[in-house]
Design a protein that fits this description.
Distance between the termini: 46 Å
Strand content: 5-15%
CATH superfamily of the largest domain: Phosphoenolpyruvate-binding domains
CATH topology of the largest domain: TIM Barrel
Number of helices: 22
Number of domains: 3
Largest sheet: 8 strands, mixed
CATH architecture of the largest domain: Alpha-Beta Barrel
Radius of gyration: 25 Å
Low-confidence stretches: none
Shape: globular
Helix content: 40-55%
Strand order of the largest sheet: 1-8-7-3-4-5-6-2
Number of strands: 16
Mean pLDDT: 86
Length: 569
């Protein structure tokens, strides 16, 4: 007899496979504490080893999924290296506690601070803290922390599945992820979406119901679970799986076709590239070049900056991946949550508003010029055999920043006798100041690319990672649409093209609005390209403009989104 459970939808998709229940290891019995000196040595060793393991895991995830996902484990490593947390544990050891008890106490005190918030996002970070704590405790006990992965395709079921446990299970055996705890904003859920597998969280009781080997159906769209589905339920699930498969085939048929609207208006559909593995995904998705190549992964997790040759080698690889297409490389965008250990800077109370993006590059011209040298060297190396290089400067607020960045580019080109003819230079519009200064910026560059992630965050003063305020910042809000309309008009008045490289480009309803605005290029996560390509082929440019005008006349984002989702009338 089938049994039904409801949780919270965390990653879309449908799956049907045997359950593989991941159970936590049995708690170790605490041994007698050694001397304070001995326990201090064990504590420091465990924290150091945990940080090393997490940094290695970050490198693995970077190669498999990309820089954003790797950042989860870079943050975990930072927890293990946090001096205040270590000092709390050392103080407890000095007072006679065993290292394990001291670790548990120190981490739990930090956890209490996060749990005191009503934010889902901060609660999810508390789970991340638990992940690091449990790893350190396992090291102290001499036990393995990683889970034993199933050998066949399975629905992974657990009371709680930490991000690092999720990342160490081979993708080939994961049909879906289901947990009794967690939220859609937890890092385990984020990893599930990156892996492209359905996920349901908050499914209380699933561990007891889904014994090892029991068939489990997962609906990641609605948060529904069926243990041992009956014949009728299996037939319904199979219909949905077949429908999904047919849809994938339909989209695959569009792979080699260009991005156009139903009336033949060309739209470049490009891919955001965050690391080397994204290149194959972009080609498979039919990307027409890249509208955002993030270069940060070359710099993070190292004690010295990469040399010019190493940087040029990666850029050459990207250019060769997209012959004949435009490749927009964003210069270094670090600072904020991505500090560089080899760049000295003052502590900032609000790093998101501090020395980051083009500000850091202009403040560290040696670092900036080496990157420009690498970009120009890669362009010369590839020549006509690859993509067309475009250089984009991030977090520009003032036209003077663009002028200064271009000066460095011209001087670096002169050093090595590089011809700048045909090279496009542009600005990433992600500050309100840049949006309002679009006319002046466009008069001095070849393109503007709108980074909706940060632009929305700054427009609404709403942290895009904070779940409790995330609904404030919606790209379909009439306020935002009117601002982007002005940006597009200003750029086109100066014969500059306009792109969008933020998450808004991945949403079909928003994409319709963006084409209505006159946006020339959309760049997105590779997985989103087929759906966007299909959605745009169902509408004309006039349809898009009509939907946009209707949306801008609505009182709020919700009604504007409804108007855009309704399609042509």
């Amino acid at each position: 007899m089938s049994r039904h459970l409801t949780g919270r939808a965390a990653a879309p998709g449908v799956a049907l496979a045997p359950a593989a229940v991941i159970r936590p290891p049995a708690a170790s019995e605490a041994g007698e504490a050694g001397t304070p000196a001995e326990e201090r040595a064990r504590l420091d060793d465990a924290l150091e080893r945990a940080a090393d393991q997490l940094e290695q895991l970050a490198e693995h995830v970077n190669q498999e999924l990309g820089d954003d996902e790797a950042g989860i484990f870079e943050a975990h490593a930072a927890f293990a290296q946090d001096p205040e947390l270590a000092d709390r544990a050392r103080k407890a050891v000095a007072e006679g506690d065993a290292a394990a008890a001291a670790v548990a106490s120190a981490f739990d005190s930090f956890r209490a601070l996060l749990e005191a918030s009503e934010s889902d996002y901060l609660a999810a970070r508390a789970e991340d803290l638990d992940d690091v704590r449990d790893r350190v405790l396992a090291l102290l006990a001499g036990e393995a922390f990683e889970v034993e992965a199933p050998r066949e395709l399975s629905v992974i079921v657990a009371h709680e599945l930490s991000p690092s446990q999720t990342a160490t299970i081979p993708r080939a055996v994961i049909a879906a992820l289901v947990t009794e705890t967690g939220s859609p904003t937890s890092h385990a859920a984020i990893l599930a979406r990156s892996l492209g597998v359905p996920a349901v969280v908050g499914a209380t009781g699933i561990v007891d119901l889904a014994t090892d080997g029991a068939d489990l159906a997962v609906d990641g769209h609605q948060g529904l679970l069926i243990v041992d589905p009956d014949d009728e339920e299996r037939a319904h699930i199979q219909q949905r799986l077949d429908k999904d498969a047919r849809r994938r085939e339909e989209l695959q048929a569009l792979r080699e076709l260009p991005g156009t609207t139903a009336d033949g208006h060309r739209i470049e559909l490009a891919a955001n590239i965050g690391a080397e593995p994204d290149l194959a995904d972009a080609v498979d998705a039919g990307a027409e070049g890249s509208g955002l190549v993030r270069t940060e992964f070359l710099y993070l997790d190292r004690t010295a900056a990469p040399d010019v040759d190493e940087q040029a080698e990666f850029i050459s690889q990207v250019l060769r991946t997209f012959p004949g297409h435009r490749v927009v490389v964003r210069t270094l965008d670090v600072g904020a949550d991505k500090p560089l250990p080899f760049v000295d800077r003052e502590e900032e109370p609000n790093p998101a508003l501090g020395l980051r993006g083009i500000r850091l590059s202009l403040a560290r011209p040696g670092l900036f010029r080496d990157q420009l040298r690498a970009l120009l060297a890669a362009r010369a190396d590839v020549g006509d055999q690859g993509g067309r290089l475009a250089i984009m400067f991030p977090l520009v607020s003032l036209p003077a920043e663009l002028t200064e960045a271009r000066r460095h580019l011209v001087e670096v080109a002169a050093e090595h006798d590089h011809d700048l003819g045909g090279l496009e230079v542009g600005v990433m519009v992600e500050t309100p100041a840049a949006a309002l200064a679009a006319d002046r910026l466009a008069s001095h560059c070849d393109f503007l690319s709108i980074g909706t992630n940060d632009l929305l965050q700054y427009l609404f003063a709403a942290d895009r990672l904070l779940h409790s305020v995330s609904e404030l910042a919606d790209a379909c809000d009439p306020i935002v649409l009117r601002l982007l309309d002005d940006v597009a008009a200003a750029a086109h008045a100066h014969d500059a093209w306009v792109g969008v490289c933020g998450e808004a480009a991945s949403d079909p309803a928003t994409a319709v609005a963006l084409i209505g605005l006159g946006i020339d290029e959309l760049s997105m996560t590779p997985a989103a390209i087929p759906e966007i390509k299909a959605a745009l082929r169902d509408v004309t440019r006039a349809d898009c403009r009509h939907a946009l005008d209707t949306a801008m006349a609505q009182p709020d984002a919700s009604e504007a989104r409804d108007a855009l989702s309704a399609g042509p009338t």
